[in-house]
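Appendix C reproduces, verbatim, an entry submitted by the partner laboratory led by Prof. M.T., so that reviewers can inspect both the input and the predicted structure.
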Amino acid sequence: MSLRSRFSIAVAAGALAVAALATPAVAGDDWEDSSGTWGNQQNQNQSQNPNQGQNNQNARLYKGVVTASALALRSAPNRGGQIIRWAARGEVVTIFCKTRGQNIQGNSNWYLLTDGTWAWGSARYIRDIGTTPRWC
């Protein structure tokens, strides 16, 4: 195989990898089961037990508020992760779960957010609304 062919393959593979990283994954807040009745079942469960899932319609998702003036949401739970997007102070974000990551000013928890893209935000700069998110 010639050097030119190898170079072309390497360039194509690199472009594919960059496109895969740059294309955000879409995350919806309204999950459904196979019958399409998740929302109805969840609403019925909430009316039977009003203390369950108070801060959102889906008990698997949690809400938080950004407390930093601008928070970098990243591809990994550390400052070295690629910045996916920025969240502004006061923005309400949807939290899927939390995990341990790089310690940011005494807090090593990071939240996996599902607002249009899957991205990690430091829990140091996101205040929980209601219940504390579950572990990933």
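The chain has a mean pLDDT of 74. Additional entries are available on request from the coordinating office.
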